[in-house]
Design goal:
20% helix, 153 residues, eight-stranded mixed β-sheet
């Protein structure tokens, strides 16, 4: 049987000024910097850029609006690591695994990003859930299942 989780996708840092943080980290790590992306996610609009270190990425995020989850985390905790992202081959199985292990999710229904561009590729859908920080030693974890084509309904 293949492992349920396939790889660490990226580390996500929250910053007050996403552009300045991306440019600075690009200088520090001498890596290419992604252009600005806006991610609409069910009423939340997150601005994101990334810095590449080889094949690995540090994402830098902020909110377009003061009421979003990143803005709230910035107010409570300041700038720093916001979350880590991991990939799974089967999100439904991962959710069942988490429930069996007593892991708390921020919600049981996955968010769905459509036509998501990442590293020059466009994915029809990316399904995600978040492990609540209380279940992961204070770290929020985003668990993602990526689809090149939209999955059959």
């Amino acid at each position: 049987m293949q492992p349920l989780f396939t790889n660490m996708q990226e580390i996500v840092i929250r910053a007050r000024d996403v552009d300045a943080a991306a440019e600075r980290l690009g200088e520090v790590f001498d890596g290419p910097v992604d252009g600005r992306q806006i991610e609409p996610l069910e009423g939340i609009e997150i601005v994101q850029r990334g810095v590449w270190i080889g094949n690995e990425r540090i994402a830098i995020v902020g909110d377009l609006h003061e009421a979003g989850p990143v803005a709230k985390a910035l107010a409570r905790h300041g700038e720093g690591i916001h979350e880590i992202c991991v990939r799974t081959r089967n999100l439904a199985r991962a959710i069942a695994h988490f429930k069996e292990k007593g892991v708390r999710l921020t919600r049981d229904t996955p968010y769905v990003l459509k036509n998501y561009e990442y590293a020059g590729e466009v994915f029809a859908e990316v399904h995600i859930v978040f492990i609540h920080p209380e279940s992961c030693y204070g770290m929020m974890v985003e668990v993602q299942e990526w689809h090149k084509e939209a999955p059959a309904a």
